Amino acid sequence: MHGRGAHGSMPHTLVDPVVLASSIVLRLQAIVSREVEPGHFAVVTGGSLTAGAKANIIPDSAELLLNIRTYDPAVRERVIASIKRIVRGKCAAAGAPNAPEFEYYDQYPLTSNDSETTDTVTRAFTEHFGAEVVYEATRVTASEDFSLIPESFGVAYTYWTVGSIEPERYRDALARGAVGQEIPANHSPQFAPLEEPTLLTATRAHIVVALAYLAPAGEVSG
């Protein structure tokens, strides 16, 4: 967002991009609650707002980094259109000397697991590891570029994760139905899966799935 910089003692002579960006951040929070149909998933997160370097100098621009997540491409387009409308409107209302600029980066497609492949993998995991340690996850809001490769070749796929925590902590979270919420995920400062048996389990998982497809029935052993 572009403003008009000046000394902090002369706010009447400028267009403050810090105030402008702050008002945009607050207004963007209404997109999900007021513009996305109830029952449809969407997230709009302002992860970074950068402007200026000194307390007594009002800068001439501000950069706002946004993160968007949806399960429906149509909802995504609606959210992006809303963001553009709001940012442009706020800039115009503030008297910004130049139109805002938009840049897109780190865009990933929806990862949608094939049901038949998922059933095969789940069955193989359950038979090898036991049902008590195979957790069927709900929809995950994390982004992933994994699906780019199989989709490029028209190959059915399923995406799984492997983790390891103390047995007592897992049983406690499982009893409360909070396995997916209380175990620290990546990017969390508390993220620290046990090195073992996580690495060994992950290696076995790949082998078990490969054998489920490559080995004749009845020839897969522990």
TrEMBL record:
Gene3D superfamilies: 3.30.70.360, Zn peptidases. Residues 1-90 form the Peptidase M20 dimerisation domain. This is Peptidase dimerization domain-containing protein. Signal peptide: none annotated. InterPro entries: Amidohydrolase, Bact_exopeptidase_dim_dom, Peptidase_M20_dimer.
